[in-house]
Structure formats: C-alpha cells, structure tokens
Amino acid sequence: MNIIQKIKQIKYIKTTPTLETERLILRPITPKDADAAFVWLSDEKVNKFMPYTLYKNTDEVLHWINAIIPKDKNCHWGIVVKENNLLIGSCSIGPDKKQPDAWGFGYNIRSDYWNKGLTTEATKMMIKFANKKYGIKNFVASHAVDNPASGRVMEKCGLVFDHYGEYSTFDGKQTFKAKFYKMHLE
C-alpha cells in the first residue's frame, strides 16, 4: 500500500495524543481553553496573516474549539509552556488538500512568546509524530511573504522553498502573496 492509499484510509484522527518536547506540552484543546485561546485569537499581531478573521469574544472561540475536536483528518493541539503551564498557542497537522501524498501544518502563538524557538519546537514535534505514527514522509506549508518569521520556522524544521503563490482569508476579503515550502523525509 502506498502513502496516498494509507492517507485515504484515515477517515479522521479519533484522538489527538499529548506530546512533549523539552519545553512544551502539546495537548488537545478543550472548551475550558476558550479564555486562554482568546488571548492570541483576538490579537491583531498574531492574526495579521491568518486565513480566519479576528475573534471578537470567547463564544466565537468556543465555536472554533468545538469544530476542531476530532471531526477531521487533522491533529489539533494547544501549545502549553511546561515552566508555567500556560496555554500560549495552537498548532495542527494533517493531510494536505492539494497534495494527496503530503501533510500540511500550521501554528500560531501569543505575540509575547514570539522569538523564543517555541513554534519551531512544536512544529518539529508535529512532523516527528506524523512520520512515526502514520509514516508520512512529505510535508508542505506556506506563509505570507510579509511574514518571514513564519518562513524561518519552516526552514529550521527542514523545509525548503518550493514556489510562490497566494492564499485568501476564509471570507475572501483579503489575499496574501505567499511562499510555499516542502520537505521529504527518507
């Protein structure tokens, strides 16, 4: 069975496991996390290049959390700092819609935790998990050209630039020029 057939067999990921790195715990997000998640989901700096609109209240955050609790082929985690047990962001990984033999990933964290290597640490763990648990060898990701810090995370995780393109917000009101990256593990 090739990798595309394996990916198609995954109807949805029933449970998102808890993972640990040196400084982080990646754990499933629950409705109890709505207040903490609102901190980054309502921050204009964090959401400037995200495909979703800025969240206005915790009810909107609860709707998002309930929508991602295992109903699709992605694993969604909350990013928790071990040192203070603070939920600082979220990340996810799962089958890419445009490239059937690859998995894509995304992330966002509170702006007061930027530039500490935490997003890179979480992303490396997601890639390791997908490779070991599901045998995934191809990974893809993209970022807005005007958000080079996200590209540095991808590069630190081993992805290489592939091509330019664009993506739009879910409501279609804004389009971003983007850089697309890829990685193949042996």
Keywords:
8 strands, Aminopeptidase, 186 residues, 6 helices
Structure explained in plain terms:
By secondary structure, the chain is an alpha+beta fold. It is built from six helices and eight strands. Strands 1-2-3-4-5-6-8-7 form an eight-stranded mixed beta sheet, with helices on both faces. α2 crosses α4. The protein is globular. It starts with a helix and ends with a strand. The model has no long low-confidence stretch (mean pLDDT 91).
Question: Layout of helices and strands, plus pairs?
Answer:
Elements lengths: L2 H7 L9 E2 L3 E4 L6 H8 L2 H4 L10 H11 L6 E7 L4 E10 L7 E7 L8 H17 L3 E7 L3 H9 L3 E9 L6 E10 L2
Helix pairs in contact: 2-4
The average pLDDT score comes to 91
Helix content: 25-40%
Largest sheet, described in full?
8 strands, mixed
Oligomer: single chain
> Got a strand count?
8
User: Which second-level CATH architecture applies?
Assistant: 3-Layer(aba) Sandwich
Structural domain count: 1
Q: How many helical stretches?
A: 6
The low-confidence parts are: none
- State the fourth-level CATH superfamily: Gcn5-related N-acetyltransferase (GNAT)
CATH topology: Aminopeptidase
From the N-terminal CA to the C-terminal CA, the straight-line distance is 17 Å
Order of helices and strands: HEEHHHEEEHEHEE
- By secondary-structure content and strand pairing, the structural class works out as alpha+beta
Q: Approximately how much beta-strand content do the residues carry?
A: 25-35%
The 3D shape can be described as globular
Query: What's the gyration radius in Å?
Result: 16 Å
Q: What is the CATH top level name? A: Alpha Beta
Q: If strands are numbered along the chain, what order do they take across the biggest sheet?
A: 1-2-3-4-5-6-8-7
